[in-house]
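Retro notes - structure team

What went well: the batch runner handled both jobs without manual restarts.
What didn't: labels got mixed up in the shared folder, which is why I'm recording both outputs here explicitly, each with its sequence directly above its tokens.

Job 1
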Amino acid sequence: DDDEDEDEDEEEDDDDIDVPTEIEDIVEMLLTGLRDRDTVVRWSAAKGVGRITGRLPRDFAGDVVGAVLQLLCDEEGDGAWHGGCLALAELARRGLLLPSLLPEAVPVVVKALAYDVRRGAHSVGTHVRDAACYVCWAFARAYSPSVMRPYVRDLALAMMTVAVFDREVNCRRAASAAFQENVGRQGHENFPNGIEILTTADYFTLGIRAHAYLEVAPFTARFPEYRYAFIDHLLNVKLRHWDVAVRELAARSLARLVPLDPRHFGDVVVDKLLALSLDAELLTRHGACLAAAEVILALAKVPYTFLKAATLNRVRNLVPRIEKARLYRGRGGEYVRGAVCRFIECLSHSAVGVSRRLALRLLKTLDECLRHPKPAIQQLALSALRALSANALSDGGDKDTVARMPVAFAKVLRDDENPAARRGMALALGCLPASVVCRADAPARLAVVVDALIGATKVERLVSRRDAETRKNAALALAELCETVGTATSTTPGLSTADAERIVAALLACTRDYSTDTRGDVGSWVRMASARALERVARVLLAAPAREREARLAAEGGAVAAPWSAGWQVQTPYGLATLRAMRAEGAVCEFTFAPPALGAYFFAYGPASIARGTVEAWMRAAAGSGAAARPAFAVSPAAERGQYLVPDAAGKIAAAVAAGTGVDGHPAVPFAAPTEFWTPQMSRDTVGALLRLAAEKLDLTRGVAGGVLTRLLHSDGVTLPAVPHAAELKALVPPVAAGAGSGLTDDTVGADVDGGDGDGDGDGGGEAAEAGADEEKDGGSDDGAEGKAAEEAAGGGAWEGVMNWSVPAQCFPVLVQTLALAEYAEDVVEGLVTSVGGLSESVVKESSIALKDWGTQAARAGKDRTLSRVALALLGLMGWDLESAKAAAKAR
């Protein structure tokens, strides 16, 4: 009773306080300042509102809080929302926002956390969302867990949505900090799974937007409390975002959530995405089409997932419906084209059946996109064509269409006047699968493709038809064609030795493309592409002996059918399945079955296992043709090995192939010497061309050529054979390349380069080193101590084993040492001339100093023949008669 009397006395005292009229004017000015255009004014006004309200009577303070809440309405602008949130946070911090007002305050705070108003080509609201996170942080410190319990779920969902999906990094981090404060002060029971989420969603992991979307969001969505809020937010907000990068990330993030609830996606999300893909708003249909593609592909990877028949029909008919509605037209139509290309690619990779009629319709769409002037659209169409031709057109597709496709592409590449069409068709010819381009019953098809691509690498006679991008794309397409088709063997079709020689010669010619136009040295694009292509072609051609060995083994009946080869079929307890990929480092096989089984199925068929049914089929086939034809590498099936698998059979076969011995009493196949596709002259020409490019004036060109040269000299895998002066080159060139362009990736337009293994440790290439040493002994170098001098100049591992070829101060002191190597002097001189006589001050300075220092050292050492060789190379570049000059030098 005494406490109640005291409270009543305090209320009476508050009522008795007479607030001066000036205070009302000041409060009015502060509330007006919350709408000010300047952030510093709004922030100061919010501080003032908090301080003054704390000294006012309760009723007056309640009026101020109500006035602040009125600022957070749709009629107000972003400034008022920002100022209102700041003021609300200050009031909450000071205990002036009573719990009775939380039912009114929490919904507007949740709305502020999602505030994003589109204005023109961008949006406003970042500062509002950041201030709303401040309000959530203040709530955590101001109220007890029992007071906040009714509002925790809404605030937690809103904060985590901002933390993982907001476009701005400061908002993601602010939301994470607010969530962490709430979990710490409100308790783990109030905020579901808060501790587990905080271990993943922290300040650093949310700093990179892609990591937040693709890693943190799927982890958080494992908890059902957040999963469906995330799905709804991506569907209704982020797929319609004005930033194309956010829409693309949203589509990929949505696909990452599919395994968490595939039934929900198959029954609800897919239908909604298909409907939104035909929306009147450009941004919505672009994001929805991308998301539909990614979700369908993700569903195909989930075991035991089925789509309704009506949904499947809508999926197959989406592209025709988009084209019928003419949604490619108008501003931003290229976005829809790109999304459609991605949809076709995912549709082809998924288990959704593509009929012959639909495949032809999709092929027509991709043909139009390949002719599009924007390289990004061409690249997306290229990926889609690669998937469609491999999955829907290669084996079971229309034979007439398959036969006409390479010829039609080659004709466009050869005759079309549109440069964009020629660029796209060059890339298209390189991406076609071997089953389309290279068939034993149609050998002329491969010849047409090779001729067209080689012709496209040459500089056109007519100036109006010259296009550097076409030549660059043709060079890259030749490399991809070699990787796809491979070399011919005694039993399988492929590239012949004549084709290999022509391809290598064409790529070497591309390294001398110095054409220019109004854009500058456009030939550098061709030179860089040809350098990368030479590396890829070399790896394919050098692997030809191993390919021939396996083919001859297969011809003898002991086929090396490894379970980790894509497309391999195995008999399972559920029927015949086709291998899609290996998982868990080879411990698990991912299989697909014939429709209507839409998803993938996983079995513990590791690399050391092989299907018993396959082994028995080999033996039955061999027994039917006589005892003499018994498979060379067949493993006798034993009862204890299981009904469906014969463990270790593949391992035994691989070991026997490597050792040239038999397995389980069966003899090894005698192998003849395979045909050599890569010659020593190719090695010399390739290394010479790379040294010339590495000595050029352009930093990016040097980086690309240096990276390729480093990998070819020091790779653990395939090493160039019979490289002249291989030992000296390995001593000069560090085993690791760094800098722009040194990797296999190509950031320029139209590139489609597969990533490689990068750098070796310098141990490989023993045969090449010995070959170089033999040539040295045979008189390849006319200065006896030059090889040793070159090694000493390199410092036995200069730059601590790393070379940045794009930095002139690092590369030129090493490159000038190769002038002492007779085989490469002319190539290096040709490259150095462009650097010494260039316009870039840093390149001119470093190359001139390096060349002068090397010449001075050579003169002091009495290496007159080396200096004469360099001088003759310079005279040759100036058009002198080298034969006469050499004869005169010998006479003296």
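Job 2
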Amino acid sequence: MISDKYLRMILPGIRAKLSFFTAVLVVSILAITSVIYYNQQQKALEEKMNAELKAPLEYVNTAVLDLENLSHSLILIEEFKIRVKEKQRELGKFKRKVLKKEGGLFGALKSFGASIGLKVRHNYYQKSVDTYFTRYLSEKEIREFETKVKGELRKESGAPIESVYYDKLMNISKRTASARIGIEAARSRIEEIEEEVKAVESEISSASDPKRKNTLISEREKLTAESGSLVKSIPESEKRAALGETALTKSLQNFFRGSYKDRISALGLLPDKVRILAYDASGKQTLDTGLLFPESSETGKKLLSLASFEENKKGLFQGKDPFKTAQDFREPENYEVGGRQYEVSYRVVFRNPGTAERSEILIDEILKSPRRWRAYLEADRKFAADLGELSQKIKSKLGELRKTGKVKPSSDPEFRNLYSQYKKIIKLRDSKLDQLNPYSEAVKTIESDRKKEITSLETKAKSLNEELTVWRKKETMPVKEGEKKFSLEEIQENIRSLEATAEEIRETLERTDAVKDDWSDSIPYQAPESFAGLRDAALDEFVFIPYRSDSNSMRRYWRNLEERKTVKKKWALFREWIFAGDSETELPKSKLPVLDSGILIRSRSEAEEWMWALDSTPLFSESEENETGGLAYDLLRKNHLGFNVVLLDRTEGLRKIRQNREELLRYTALIGFIAVLSAYVLAWMAARRIKTIIRKTEEVGKGNLEVEFPPAGYDEIGILSDSLNRMAHGLKEREEMKGELLAAEEIQKRLLPDKLPNHPGDAAEFGAFYKAMAGVGGDYYDFIELSKNEVALCVGDVSNHGVGPAIVMSLFRAQVRSILRKGERDLRRILSELNEYLYSDTPDHIFVTFFIAIYDRPTAKMRYVSAGHVKPLLYDASEKKIRELPAGGLPIGMDENSFFETTIEPRSFQMDVGDVFFQYTDGLDEARSPQGTMYGKERLAKTIVSNAEVSPSEIIRAIVDDLDGHTGKSVGSSGFSELSDDIAMIAMKRKS
């Protein structure tokens, strides 16, 4: 107690605890709020910067693509000019010679003479004419293309490019085109030489003439030397081509610098905070906003020379897979240079967004769920193999037709038949996609949900219109008899409310209808469309070049159904042009407006070769080792143009965020201090009231139950004070009741036998035990000496516990003794008389299980009868065994005598020397351990057998001790019992 007192003095009290808890709570709340606020500000800053960057970055992407397209177009124009001359020479051998009549003045005169009947002789001459296979892009078509491209080269004022500057661009383009064609020709010639060397070596091995053999060896050496020279020339040509492309790009940048600057400024780029650098796939810089804006040139200047930044930037150009590179550099990087904070983002740029986006969708689908598309990809590989074989047959057939030069492919039945088979396989491939599309059910669900939503909205709209009609009639028509009357204001208010709801539903229906064909964010639509359209998109971008790049083309394609239909018609037109074989340079007639936005840059034969390559290449490679194989990856790599590196100076934004955070922390500290101080004051006021209650409670603990707790208000402490007052009064009443119970227990003990029977002398010994659960109880035992040779043994158990059963037990005891004093010894009559009394004078829920026996000393015979009581036990000393005596009957007070007497049956047994008779109430064998197991009759019997040699009192003492061990409670000690039932037991042992 002393240590507790000192501990209470040392340890913090409720004031300190409450203040500490308040401080922790306030600081935690404010800290969490600060973190959330800080993160929200950072997120808001990022969103703001991204929003500001979006338009300029899209424009930069478009500008880079335009530069690439213009550069590509200018070089292509020069390539066309060179190729046309080469093709004319190359295809001249396929021209057909025909006889032509003499023309000119003499030819005309001869024709006139023949027409009037004169005999004239015409002169004929041979002339080479073009066939289908000798036609290529004409110089006229190239000039038209050049005119369109030149029209795109305009200054920021809209004025056309000067001729001098344009000639400069064309000279660079010509040198670059010559280098490219030289590379292509060298590689082609190297392949031819390899074939020729193989043929020569084969001839050398079979040649027998030494002179012929030496000639062949010399020829092989010449071919090998030529091949080596060509191999050496390729790097030099590649270098010239690369230098030419760089020079052309820089010249175009310089030309468009003013346009780019005005446009980027108009789009809201902040040059002092943002700098965008564009690079091609090899790492060469193609655009830098720092060169357009003087203030932007200082943005990130120190960062560009930072070794870690350069190292990370190099990683962009080392990877061969642009998709993986995009994934690796998806998260922005943060740098701190010279006290300034920079965020660097990397964006992949593709030459043809249509092909690139579809390829990315396909790759993402396969990486996420390869099993989903496995069945279709297997079918696609089979179709690709079939189309590859068929394309070789078509190629062979075209070779035959080219040699003769007489019939164009469209007129050849075999050619048409081969392409008929080709189209069938394409159609089967498309239908297979529809059949194996894993998103078909998802699409059906989306469509079904949309229809249900539209139906529901239309139903609501119809219902609202009908209700509106009713209310509008109420506004103008008089109220009918029996109808509820509404004021004009109520009617008009209801009409306005219904009109607003109807308008909202109408707008929702319009929005739903507007986006029904929008696939922008719906993979179940985009993925199958990408699988179906990847090859056609790649073919389109190969044969047709737009005059201007359009970064929004795919966005329009996904959002607009008409756009998708137009693009698919364009794709079908290109394929039909190739399938027909009717013209090398002219598309079939079409009114598609999309064809006016660009120009056809490939001949049909070139387009056909590319179509064969696309159709015969599987979308994804079957080999698990080559995870990045297949058409999707090939096209993504082919379309990879480069990267945009965005340098974002976040110093000012982060400085503002830090200032806000510091200000928030100051306010947090102030609020926390005020909160802790307030909590301490409130805790002191509460603790003062609690201390008063504690002092009073300590007095109660010392035994003073006259304490009165002072009123403490209506809060929890006031409730506690009232509760303690009630508790004190209750304790006082309980102490009084406890005194009364102790007195009742003492009275009840006096009713029990104060001594054991002694009339039988040395013939028998007796023992008894009684323990009430609540001081007084309903269990009962008695020894009544009837004469010198007879003694009555009684054990009873009144239902329930406590004072009421104790009173019944007292009255019952008196009744038993009264009957026996009258001299009644017939056990059946004794029980009948007791039952009649108890049944008529007690409530229905009160009954008594009762056992009475009369022992006769001379005969050592025990007569007994049981009224629903537990069966008594008899220890047989001769056999050293214990047995249960028969008993039964209905408890006393439960029914009338007419039935009761039929249930009881008097019995008797003979006791031998050493035999022990034992009877008890059910509170003994039903006593439970802490684990819930009952004491039980078996354990009771074992205890009696093991102690049968000692006196009955010692037997009962042994049972009580064993019961203490089983229950873990002190049953034999004085005071109230901790058991759940009263216990009574008696024992008798015959000595002689």
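One thing worth noting from job 2: The domain at 752-990 is CATH 3.60.40.10 (Phosphatase 2c; domain 1).
We'll revisit the folder naming next retro.
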